Amino acid sequence: MWKPWDGKGVPHDFSGLAFWLNRADPIYAREFLAAKKEALAWEPIKDPLRPYLAREKAALEWLAMLDALSAAEQGRLSDLRASKFADAVYESVEITDLLEEYRDNEVRADTRFKGQVVELRGVVGNVKRDVTATIYVTLGTGKPVETPEVQCFFEDRLAKRAAELSRGDKISVVGRVRGLLVNVLMDCEFAG
Q: How many alpha carbons fall within 13 Å on the CB side of residue 96?
């Protein structure tokens, strides 16, 4: 029903259509969730007509009505229910664009980004705790010296996931931009 782009051929995704046409069959729901997890990103849509096709949380809740969830599915649904951003509509932003905008003109960057929820993909720098013991991860483009970087703050419930990170890992985060204070500060959660 779906095939990610492998550099050859044409990517295709009929998993959403198949799920919609067979919404009472948990097999199609699981195939749709697998396609989104393994190859095809969720694309946030404001006020979707069919939330179970636009939001992972809604798709898992739909699946839960059809069939018992596996331990992994139940764990993911619990994480999404705890997430501040599970139902947020957000823009995917290139980390280079965000950092260049803040380097060039902080006032203009704040007008565009401050208070907004964005998704970023970047390279892990530091994984630490600040003076208040809050977990943070710095993200950049991978350059050896970079100022500013994005400084993502995570709740303690995400400590296990943060502990698995290493310098140089590429990760995606979703978070609310707080503005610039040496680094671009964001309240974050891990994407996907």
A: 3
